[in-house]
Structure formats: structure tokens, C-alpha cells
TrEMBL record:
Its cofactor is Mg(2+). Coiled coil: none annotated. Gene3D superfamilies: Alpha-D-Glucose-1,6-Bisphosphate, subunit A, domain 3 (3.40.120.10), Alpha-D-phosphohexomutase, C-terminal domain (3.30.310.50). It comes from Flavobacterium agricola. Keywords: Isomerase, Magnesium, Metal-binding, Phosphoprotein. InterPro entries: A-D-PHexomutase_a/b/a-I, A-D-PHexomutase_a/b/a-I/II/III, A-D-PHexomutase_a/b/a-II, A-D-PHexomutase_a/b/a-III, A-D-PHexomutase_C_sf, A-D-PHexomutase_CS, Alpha-D-phosphohexomutase_SF. This is Phospho-sugar mutase. Residues 47-184, 218-316, 322-440 form the Alpha-D-phosphohexomutase alpha/beta/alpha domain. Belongs to the phosphohexose mutase family. Pfam families: PGM_PMM_I, PGM_PMM_II, PGM_PMM_III. PROSITE patterns: PGM_PMM (PS00710). The lineage of its organism: Bacteria, Pseudomonadati, Bacteroidota, Flavobacteriia, Flavobacteriales.
Length: 576
């Protein structure tokens, strides 16, 4: 197999004494016995995507290892010292249940301390939202969490947070990347200063739990909480460290944990994927729920920022809610609670969403006469809204990928507070003779029946990246003018920052950061979005269709009609 000179130059660098013997031996082994793997490991540098940097663990510039993370940390250290000259810089570090997360977190802590930075390192694995909380609680300048969220076991990752507890956004992200790219691996200072590393745990846990309860509980009667039967699974992840404690402190006494999945384990042995977006991930939790006749099931991903929810439908069967449905339920509940408490002051308050999420969030904002801010995919953009508009109070918001943010104490998606919030909704509904499912149906009657669908296509490696690029190019350069016999009326291209009226040819500027996203709007209100993932080798297609309904009896017929509409659009796009 021919390996390009540019890749071989990188490989030869990794065979120098800058790298330890074990790394050099592994590179040599790949060079002789697995050139295809070698090429994939070195053909590019790992990049920061939607949720930081994620990749397969191993040697090479396109892998997660002590050198790629060490270089990131060295660059971040230098940027922090330039930005906060004269200050004693402080950073917080957390890590999840994945293989090597603890040792990689220690390496990151060592590099920070070697650069004279005060480090607060969690003594054990902790949820990602707790890291976001800790950054603000400890008045840190930045934070790092070692996690690959719901990716497969061979992955790990590195997410960077700023002073406000939100993830990196422009201009800091590009400025930091520039510093990192100008470094050599030999520039990394791995020699730790132990005096600058403080291990943290219980105090932050307590403050984090109390904050979640303050933001996500609403004077629900004790009897209603005790009468709600909950099944919870951490899917071998970090939420076991927080969610049972928060639910207990909040007064929920009937919490049934899926024991087989309670032990943190980076192999995720009981699931194909530890992703609550995948129905299979909640199989064991649903089985327990049916065995004990539970009211609600909640499952979280390994770093506890996403949650999957299942509730009983009108016939008593457990059904999984999608991310858009849980987001709408939680947002509507928060708005209603704030309204009843006379705390809503129109445009002084706002909810947040993303361009690929359900347009039903716009309907909710209009109904409650509050502002809504819609950003790119990723909670860093919602956190940025909170930072950029301090004169407005953030109520809550989320995105379709099973994440939600309750208030502004945590500036990232937070499965801990969100789990408590969905249990509050369930407890109050049950006490009133209703259910979560019925509450969702009522929202559809009030605001229209919205149905969303996601197609995710995996394309791995160099060839896969080129295929995804070609798909996006075709959609841009040869746009569809009609889908499902409906005219395409608008196309928004976030890479070019343009919105084109396909009927008049008029082009307007989009005032939102650039991103490789295309959105087609049809004459009937349908919305189709194409977006390559920022953290996985995938291209995603998001579909949203809607229909007004008069009562809940129309839902079944509306669902069938909208399902057919989505299927027709998929056929026209040749995605079958």
C-alpha cells in the first residue's frame, strides 16, 4: 500500500525520542503490519467539532492519546496565560467511565500544573454537567472533561469549557486552535507540579445537587413524589454518581435502579451502544418497568448530559419519547410554572433551541410571549446566548439529540437536572389524573401536531469523509426545487451564510456563525436539514413536518399522514 510522503513525515516524527518507547514500538508495528491503520491514524490531526474533540484511542495525530491531548493542554495553558496575564489561573478537570479517562485526566492535570496553573481535579468520575457547574462554582478560568459522550468504547474525547461554564465558542476556539497548531510535540511540558493539583469531590457534589433541585423542582406535594414509580439506568456511566442522590434529596422515594447497568464500565457490556437515543439501550430498563409497573423510565448516556425517557401511553404500554418531545414537554412545563408564579415578563425571558430541532419551540415561545433564540447545533451556542444577553433571563431549552438545559446554573446539556424535571412533570400529571403522554397530546392540540424523524448515515475513514463532502456539494450545487410534490421555497446555507428565496431568487444574509448545514423549507411548512456530524463520521438528515389538529382523537390519523409525507421526502432525496 502506497503511503503519501506527508503522512510518512508525520510517522517519522513519532519515531523520535520526543515520544516514549511504547509509542514508537506501536508506530513501527503499524508501519510493517497494518499500513491502512497507520494511514488512518496519521492522515489528519484530530479536530475540534460540535462537542470538542473526539476520536479513537491509539497512537497517531488522528487519535486520542497523551501527546494529542498534551499538545492541546499545552496550547490552552499558553493561551490562558496570555489572556489572563498576571492572574493565578485556575482550571477544573472531570472525566467519565471510559477506558483511560482517569489516566488521561491526570496527564492533562500534570501539563496544566507544569505550566503554573492551579488545577482542581475530581477524585473520581463525575457527570459532564457537574464539571460545567464546578467551573463557575470554583471561579475557574476554564474546564476540561475527558469524555466521548455516547460514542463506542474505543473512543475518548476532550471538551473545553470557559469561565462562564459553557463550551468554547468563537473567537476563543479558533484562537486556541491556532496556538495549538503552532506547537511542536516537543514543546509539551509533562512534568507535573503536585502542589498545584487539588483533588475535589464531596463539596462540589453537594452544591451541584442543591442547584439541580433549586432549578428543576416546583413545590410538588410530597405525596405526589412518593406515588411516582421511577426506573433509572445510568447505562454504565457517570450519572450513578449524581441522579439517585438528587432524586432522593428532592423527595422521590420509589426509584428503582437497573442494577446490571449501575456499575461504571467503559466496555458498556449490556448494550450495543450507550446512547439513550437508541431504543435498544433502554431494553433492560423497560423490562424492569414492566415487571414492577413503573410510571416512567429514564436512562442517561455515559457522561450524563443526555437522557432518554419512556412513559406509559393511553393503553398503558411503555413508549419512548424522542428528544424533540421531551424538550417540548419540559419547556412548556417550565413556561407554565413561571407563568403561574407571575415571573414571566415577556421578552425579558427567553428559551433556547437549535436549527435542527422542532419548530414547535417557536410555537411555544409565541404562545407564552417570550423570546426564543435559535442557534447552531450544540449547547455551547445556547450557553453563548445566556452570556451575550445578560439583560434577559434564560428559562430552559434544548435540542433534538436528547439534551436539555434547565436554567443557567449549568451551561451545557444536563441530564441530572433534566431527570428531576421530567419526574416533576410526571408526578404532578399523575396526581392530577393525567400522564406525561396525555400532557404531550394536549400540547399538540394547543400548538399543532409536529412529527420529526432523523436519518443518520455512517461513512468512516478518508473515503467516508469524501462521500459526505460529495453529498453536501450535490445538495448545494444542484438543489431540489420540489420534494413530495411541494415547492422548495427557501434554502438556508449556513456554510455560506445565505438564505435564498427559491421563488424570487432573492438572497439574504444569515447572521449566525458559519457551519456546514443546509436547510430546505417547503411550501407546506415541512423542514429538511442536512448536516455532517461534528463529532462522528456521519451525515445526518433531520425531517420536521406538522399539521394543526382540533382534539387528541385526530392524532393517530395526523401521525399516519405525516409519516407518509416524511417517507415520500426520503424517497425523493434517494435516502432509502
Amino acid at each position: 500500500m502506497h503511503i503519501e510522503k506527508e503522512i510518512l513525515d508525520k510517522v517519522n516524527q513519532w519515531l523520535t525520542p520526543t515520544f516514549d518507547t511504547e509509542t514508537q514500538e506501536r508506530v513501527t508495528e503499524m508501519l510493517t503490519s497494518d499500513p491502512a491503520e497507520l494511514q488512518d491514524a496519521f492522515y489528519k490531526n484530530l479536530e475540534f467539532g460540535t462537542g470538542g474533540m473526539r476520536g479513537v484511542m491509539g497512537v497517531g495525530t488522528n487519535r486520542i492519546n497523551k501527546y494529542t491531548l498534551g499538545k492541546n493542554t499545552q496550547g490552552l495553558s499558553q493561551y490562558l496565560k496570555q489572556t489572563f496575564a498576571g492572574e493565578q489561573i485556575k482550571v477544573a478537570i472531570a472525566y467519565d467511565c471510559r477506558h483511560n479517562s482517569d489516566s488521561l485526566a491526570q496527564i492533562v492535570a500534570n501539563v496544566f500544573s507544569a505550566n503554573g496553573i492551579q488545577v482542581y481535579l475530581f477524585e473520581e468520575l463525575r457527570p459532564t454537567p457537574e464539571l460545567s457547574f464546578a467551573v463557575k462554582y470554583l471561579n475557574c478560568h476554564a474546564g476540561i472533561v475527558l469524555t466521548a459522550s455516547h460514542n463506542p468504547p474505543e473512543y475518548n474525547g476532550y471538551k473545553v469549557y470557559w469561565q462562564d461554564g459553557g463550551q468554547l465558542v468563537p473567537p476563543q476556539d479558533k484562537e486556541i486552535i491556532e496556538v495549538i497548531e503552532n506547537l511542536q510535540y516537543a514543546d509539551i511540558n509533562f512534568k507535573a507540579n503536585p502542589e498545584l493539583i487539588t483533588y475535589i469531590g464531596a463539596e462540589i457534589d453537594e452544591a451541584f445537587a442543591l442547584s439541580a433541585i433549586e432549578n428543576a423542582s416546583f413545590n410538588t406535594p410530597a405525596a405526589a413524589k412518593e406515588n411516582l414509580k421511577i426506573v433509572f439506568t445510568s447505562l454504565h456511566g457517570t450519572s450513578i454518581k449524581a441522579i439517585p442522590n438528587v432524586l432522593s434529596k428532592a423527595g422521590y422515594t420509589d426509584v428503582n435502579i437497573v442494577v446490571e447497568q449501575a456499575e461504571p464500565n467503559g466496555d458498556f457490556p449490556t448494550v450495543k451502544s450507550p446512547n439513550p437515543e437508541e431504543p435498544e439501550a433502554l431494553t433492560m430498563a423497560l423490562a424492569l418497568a414492566n415487571k414492577i409497573n413503573a410510571d416512567i423510565v429514564v436512562g442517561t448516556d455515559p457522561d450524563s448530559d443526555r437522557l432518554g425517557v419512556a412513559v406509559r401511553d393511553n393503553s398503558g404500554e411503555m413508549v419512548l419519547l424522542n428528544g424533540n418531545q421531551t424538550m417540548v414537554l419540559m419547556t412548556a412545563f417550565l413556561l407554565e410554572q413561571w407563568k403561574r408564579a407571575n415571573k414571566l415578563e415577556g421578552k425579558k425571558h427567553f428559551i433556547g433551541s437549535t436549527i435542527v430541532s422542532t419548530p414547535m419551540m417557536l410555537a411555544l415561545a409565541e404562545a407564552y410571549e417570550v423570546d426564543i433564540k435559535v442557534g447552531l447545533t450544540g449547547f455551547k451556542w445556547i450557553a453563548k446566548f445566556i452570556k451575550d444577553f445578560p439583560e434577559q433571563k434564560f428559562i430552559g431549552g434544548g435540542e433534538e439529540s436528547f439534551g436539555f438545559m434547565v436554567g443557567d446554573a449549568v451551561r451545557d446539556k444536563d441530564a441530572v437536572a433534566s431527570t428531576l424535571l421530567i419526574c416533576e412533570i410526571a408526578a404532578l400529571a399523575k396526581a392530577a389524573g393525567s400522564s406525561v403522554y396525555q400532557e404531550l397530546q394536549n400540547l399538540f392540540v394547543d400548538h399543532g401536531y409536529y412529527k420529526e424523524h432523523l436519518i443518520s448515515i455512517t461513512k468512516k475513514g478518508i473515503e467516508g469523509a469524501n462521500e459526505i463532502k460529495a453529498m453536501m456539494t450535490k445538495l448545494r450545487e444542484n438543489p431540489f426545487t420540489e420534494l413530495n410534490n411541494e415547492t422548495v421555497v427557501f434554502i438556508e446555507d449556513y456554510q455560506n451564510s445565505t438564505a435564498k428565496n427559491m421563488l424570487t431568487g432573492e438572497v439574504e444574509a444569515l447572521h449566525i456563525p458559519q457551519s456546514n448545514v443546509l436547510i430546505y423549507y417547503l411550501a407546506d411548512g415541512s423542514k429538511i436539514c442536512a448536516r455532517p456530524s461534528g463529532t462522528e463520521p456521519k451525515i445526518k438528515f433531520y425531517f420536521s413536518v406538522n399539521l394543526p389538529i382540533e382534539n387528541v382523537n385526530e392524532i393517530e390519523q395526523a401521525d399516519a399522514y405525516l409519516t407518509e409525507k416524511i417517507n415520500n421526502i426520503i424517497t425523493d432525496l434517494q435516502l432509502n
